[in-house]
Automatic annotation (TrEMBL):
Residues 274-350, 356-429 form the ACT domain. It comes from the Bacteria. The keyword Cytoplasm does not apply. GO terms for molecular function: aspartate kinase activity. This is Aspartokinase. Pathway: Amino-acid biosynthesis; L-methionine biosynthesis via de novo pathway; L-homoserine from L-aspartate: step 1/3; Amino-acid biosynthesis; L-lysine biosynthesis via DAP pathway; (S)-tetrahydrodipicolinate from L-aspartate: step 1/4; Amino-acid biosynthesis; L-threonine biosynthesis; L-threonine from L-aspartate: step 1/5. It comes from Streptomyces massasporeus. It is an enzyme of class 2 (transferase). The keyword Transmembrane does not apply. Keywords: Amino-acid biosynthesis, ATP-binding, Diaminopimelate biosynthesis, Kinase, Lysine biosynthesis, Nucleotide-binding, Transferase. Its EC number is 2.7.2.4. Pfam families: AA_kinase (PF00696), ACT_9 (PF22468). Catalyzes the phosphorylation of the beta-carboxyl group of aspartic acid with ATP to yield 4-phospho-L-aspartate, which is involved in the branched biosynthetic pathway leading to the biosynthesis of amino acids lysine, threonine, isoleucine and methionine.
């Protein structure tokens, strides 16, 4: 008998029908002889609606109270799911994050899990119950206050519980059939990936792919928990994310290991670009700019420094950051303008980032050239470039992103012959 941790996202439990459908799936897993722990998100767009509600009451709600409010969303779905399972004749018990032993630090709205002590969950499943756990939430070790793990945090709850319970697999049920070679909402011919390494998945997540959160994949890699991403709307095999490639046996009986040269194309339109204009070209300037940004607790992504015009001795430094941090960054730099020494700031939130990811590019010359050729054939202008060993990213105009993603996807032979990408649910909110 195995132990399976399953996670169902908001679009899978959007209404009573969805909850009943998910209850059936959970019961099937139990009937297949497994112990089952199911982690559940809030129904549909509940979390967004609760945030809207809070903002109507107070523009800057206290973190502690916002967490209290938001965790109610997952409580609703966990209780309903337990009821639906009982209706099917099986025993189920629901647990809050705190009851499930999800212990976090005390940073409200984006707490980190520091320990998981799943004693109650273990007892519950050992007694024959299906345990339902509210995702996205925990309890602070120090303050004993309720915390949330940041948007989309239920995936992390699931992987953390899977690690603590030494589960055989963590199944993440979502509204698409798995991880695709590009966002199926943008590329109709995106292909489902059968297996992807933790490393490539981490790069895709860091580059804007939303199917799995970066933090969740990081956790899975650290504890070596295989993740199976699949749809709760179909019975298809999804995508395995693990350290070992999946070995498939072909019809002729040969063993086939899939190791794609390129895993996929990710895009991200959530960032903005700040350009610091007229920076003296001398040591220490970049340090003081980025110290200012770091002191404001802002994470940046790409950085580019232009060659200084010899005549002026001045240069420009551009960097990208989440749009949501734009105001804060500009304010912090303006405040330190005389200390840092620059002429002016430019802010541009009409940018997009396109990234090509694949471990194969380490050993295959020409990937970069092909990438830039595809973009130029599509008439897309490149503003910034950054690379890692297994990724190339460029910044372009936001408007160019869908076309650019499709062009690169085709150029690397990733298009599938059929339109296999189905988006089953979700409002994309
Ligand atoms: N309900 C939370 C959110 O919408 C957590 C999750 O869905 O994973 O962000
Ligand atoms: Mg959600």
């Amino acid at each position: 008998m195995g132990l399976v941790v399953q996670k169902y996202g908001g679009s899978s439990v959007a209404d009573a029908e969805g909850i009943k459908r998910v209850a059936k799936r959970i019961v099937e897993a139990k009937q297949n002889g497994n112990q089952v722990v199911a982690v559940v998100s809030a129904m549909g767009d509940t979390t967004d609606e609760l945030i809207d509600l809070a903002e109507q009451v107070s523009p800057m709600p206290a973190g502690r109270e916002l967490d209290m409010l938001l965790t109610a969303g997952e409580r609703i779905s966990m209780a309903l799911l337990a009821m639906a399972i009982k209706k099917l004749g099986h025993e189920a018990q629901s647990f809050t994050g705190s009851q499930a032993g999800v212990i976090t630090d005390s940073v409200h709205n984006k707490a980190r899990i520091i320990d998981v002590t799943p004693g109650r969950i273990k007892t519950s499943v050992d007694e024959g119950n299906i345990a339902i756990v509210a995702g996205f939430q925990g309890v602070s070790q120090d303050t004993k206050d309720i915390t949330t793990l940041g948007r989309g945090g239920s995936d992390t709850t699931a992987v953390a519980l899977a690690a603590a319970l030494d589960a055989d697999v963590c199944e993440i049920y979502t509204d698409v059939d798995g991880v695709f070679t590009a966002d199926p909402r943008v590329v109709k011919k995106a292909r489902k990936i059968d297996w992807i390494s933790f490393e490539d998945m981490l790069e895709l997540a860091a580059s804007g792919s939303k199917v799995l959160l970066h933090r969740c994949v990081e956790y899975a890699r650290r504890y070596n928990i295989p993740i199976h991403v699949r749809s709760s709307f179909s019975g298809l095999q999804g995508t395995w994310v693990s350290s070992e490639p999946v070995v498939r046996t072909t019809q002729q009986g040969e063993k086939q290991v899939e190791q794609a040269l390129i895993s996929g194309v990710a895009h991200d339109t959530s960032e903005a670009k700040v350009t610091v204009v007229g920076v003296p070209d001398k040591p220490g300037e970049a340090a003081s700019i980025f110290r200012t940004i770091a002191d404001a607790e802002i994470n940046i992504d790409m950085v580019v420094q232009n060659v200084s015009a010899a005549s002026t001795g001045l240069t420009d430094i551009s960097f990208t950051l989440p749009k949501t941090e734009g105001r804060k960054a500009i304010d912090a730099l303006e405040k330190n303008k005389s200390g840092i020494g620059f002429d002016s700031l430019r802010y541009d939130d009409q940018i997009g980032k396109i990234s090509l990811v694949g471990a194969g590019m380490k050993t295959n010359p020409g990937v970069t050239a092909d990438f830039f050729t595809a973009l130029s054939d599509a008439g897309v202008n490149i503003e910034l470039i950054s690379t890692s060993e297994i990724r190339i990213s460029v910044v372009t105009r936001a408007d160019d992103v869908p076309e650019a993603v499709r062009a690169v996807h085709s150029a690397f032979g990733l298009d599938s012959d059929s339109d296999e990408a189905v988006v089953y649910g979700g409002t994309g909110r």
